[in-house]
Specification:
mainly alpha
């Protein structure tokens, strides 16, 4: 068993199990007070990590270091690097950074120690919110692992680099991540599949991400399936099941049924602020304001689009601290960067149809391909346009426009009921129907928020175009409305 050679051990690690390898290491006879004995201790610590025995592994590493440290002729760098991995597995990022090693030399054992030391240090920086520094360390680990021929470790490192790039807000090519996740090593396969699922979602490829998550049996699948509008698995991670429930409730505008989600450090929990913020902006939160619910600005492009959609909703309702015109500009810029923005827009449209339609009126919207996917029914008075086209009872249509403008107009309840049934038969919920009255109110607010900026002229033009193309809106704004009895 050539456990001292980095490449050979890496191969054994990729083809065996931690339990098997530890048993083999325990059965080896090595010379006491030799480098081989120190290396064996380091390998045993790694096996204990793989067996999820991190507390015991830390005790073992500390005992071994106390035994070997300071002895002539032995190098404990690899053992110290393994101790750093234990600390990282225990999520003690600060202690990892305090134990961080600057390892030099071309000895294979020291080079391997540098691989694990840089890897642990990088992961600790990521946990502490510094993905840029994390990327530098993990990239160094990749370079040294390449020199040593550690094929499996390179796969793990590349997956971590992809995760860190996502955390830093960079777009990641999905295919290399999918290839690295395709391995027979159980732990690497499970970790890699989750990173691949997120890499696809971060590009806006929600349907593909959901399909992949289901095919790999990922416990995070319920969240991504809910976002993609796909059937949601009934089993999975508890947080993701709660997030899927929140999405379903929001799509039905039952914000009171949205659970409050814990916000943590796991990658999928980064969707929590969007859903909590949506709940808050609709008045079902104990948090003092929407900004608190949303938290800091995300680095990832797709998450930032969702974050800004809630901020836009808040700004249009006079909540939060954002400027609506500036927020819309940021959303359009980020949508342009997404390779598959249409699917993300589809998700937004299901939860925030009014705001999705509003984006299509923004200056520069024509240059955002993803917005061509917006397909929201719009009541223009006596017609509904969009994915369905219906003739409407004019007084009822005028009443709905007036209601969007904040006015109260009364129409025969029997005719309203017939209109509701007609819309429902076409798959349209009358209570959630977007009207030109809504657009008028929002465009007025955004035009005011854009005053004195380069965007002002574009918003004025969009508002004027709405009025020019909406005779029933002008009719209602003029204060004239047809009586039901005369229709």
């Amino acid at each position: 068993m050539r456990y001292a050679d980095p490449a050979q051990w890496d191969y054994l690690w990729s083809t065996g199990t931690p339990g098997q390898l530890r048993a083999q290491l325990a059965g080896l006879s090595v010379e006491w007070d030799s480098q081989d004995a120190v290396t064996r201790d380091a390998r045993i610590v790694q096996c204990m990590i793989g067996l999820r025995q991190s507390d015991e592994a830390l005790d073992y590493a500390d005992d071994a270091l106390a035994r070997w440290q300071g002895r002539a002729g032995v190098d404990v760098a690899l053992l110290r690097a393994m101790r750093m991995l234990v600390l990282m597995d225990l999520r003690d990022a600060d202690e990892v950074l305090r134990a961080s090693l600057l390892i030099q030399g071309t000895n294979p054992s020291r080079m391997e120690a540098a691989v694990f030391s840089h890897f642990a240090t990088g992961t600790a920086h990521a946990v502490n919110g510094d993905p840029e520094t994390a990327l530098l360390h993990v990239a160094r680990a990749e370079a040294v692992a390449q020199l040593l021929g550690m094929t499996h470790r390179l796969r793990v490192i590349r997956l971590e680099l992809a995760r860190l790039r996502l955390q830093a807000g960079q777009l990641v090519e999905a295919e290399p991540v999918l290839d690295d996740a395709d391995t027979s090593h159980p732990a690497t396969s499970a970790w890699g599949a989750m990173v691949a699922m997120l890499a696809l979602a971060a590009r806006g490829e929600l349907a593909r991400s959901a399909s992949y998550a289901v095919s790999r049996g990922l416990k995070e699948a319920p969240l991504i399936c809910a976002m993609a509008g796909a059937p949601v698995p009934t089993e999975g991670d508890a947080w993701c099941l709660s997030a899927a429930q929140a999405i379903a409730a929001a799509a039905q505008r039952r914000y009171d049924l949205m659970p409050v989600l814990m916000v943590g450090v796991t990658p999928v929990m980064q969707y929590g602020p969007f859903l909590n913020g949506l709940r808050a902006v609709c008045g079902y939160s104990s948090l003092p304001n929407v900004d608190v619910a949303l938290g800091p600005r995300p680095s990832r492009v797709d998450l930032r689009v969702l974050w800004n959609m809630v901020r836009l909703t808040a700004a249009l309702r006079g909540l939060g601290s954002g400027n609506a015109s500036v927020i819309v500009a940021e959303i359009l810029d980020d949508l342009r960067r997404l390779p598959m923005g249409c699917e993300l827009v589809g998700f937004i449209q299901r939860l925030l149809p009014h705001q999705a339609l509003l984006l299509t009126y923004a200056p520069g919207a024509a240059s955002v391909p993803a917005l061509s996917c917006v397909s929201v029914p719009l009541l223009c008075g006596d017609t509904v346009r969009g994915p369905v086209r219906l003739e409407m009872h004019r007084p009822t249509g005028d009443m709905l426009i007036a209601r969007a403008l904040g006015e109260t107009r009364h129409v025969n309840t029997g005719l309203v009921s017939k209109t509701r049934s007609k819309l429902r038969a076409a798959g349209v919920d009358m209570d959630g129907l977007v009207t030109v009255g809504h657009l008028h109110v929002w465009l007025t607010a955004i035009t005011q928020s854009a005053a004195g900026t380069p965007a002002a002229e574009g918003w004025h033009a969009a508002h004027a175009a709405l009025l020019d193309g909406s005779p029933r809106l002008r009719w209602v704004l003029s204060g004239r409305i047809e009586e039901t009895s005369k229709a």
